[in-house]
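User: I'm designing a mutation panel for RNA polymerase sigma factor and want to avoid disrupting the core. Could you give me a predicted structure to guide residue selection? Please restate the sequence first so the numbering is unambiguous.

Assistant: Good idea. Sequence first, for numbering, then the predicted C-alpha cells:
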Amino acid sequence: MGADRDRDDDAVLLRAVTRGNQAALATLYDRHAGWLHARLTRRCGDPETVREVLQDTFVTVWRSAGTYRGGESGGWLWVIAARRLVDAQRAQARAERVEYEPATAAPSAEDRVLAGLEYGEVGTALDRISPELREVLRATVVDGLTTREAALLLGIPEGTVKTRAMRARRELRTLLSQLSDGGMPLGDLA
C-alpha cells in the first residue's frame, strides 16, 4: 500500500513538474536521488560522471515530465539515468579517443557490446525480432532493469516480461546462428 501511495505521489509531483513547479522537482529529487546515485555508482566508478549524470537525469525529468505515462516512476527515472550514463560514457570515450588517438587502442568491452548492439550481427538480429520482444530485451539487458521494473515501465505483467525475454533470447540465438553461418545475408530484413 505504501508503494502505491508513493507511486501516486510521484505521479502528482510529475504532473506539477510538467506545469513548471520547481518545488515538485526538488521533492522528486529528494525522494529518488539517493538510490539513483547508488545504482549509478555501481555502474560507474567515476564520482564526477555519476554526479553529472544524476544532475542530467533531473534536468531531463524537468524537460520531459510530460512524457511520463504512469506506472512505476522509479523505473521511468532509472531508464533516464541509465541512458544518460551510457551517453556520458560514450561522450567520454569519444573525447579520450580524440585527445589521445592511440593507433593501437582497443575499444572497451562496453563499447564493443554497444557497437554490436547497434551495428553488428546482434543489431541486425535485434532488428529482425518483433518490437515487443526487442523492447523487453532493451529494458532488461541494455537498461539493466529488473523484471519487475521492466514490467512496470512497459505496462505488462512480470510473467509476460519473463516469457518475452525467453522468446527473444531464443529468437536471437537462432538468428545469430544463421547470420554467423552465412545462412542469411546481413541485408535481408525478411
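For picking mutation sites, this is relevant: Confidence is low (pLDDT under 50) at residues 185-190. The chain is about 75% helix and 0% strand.
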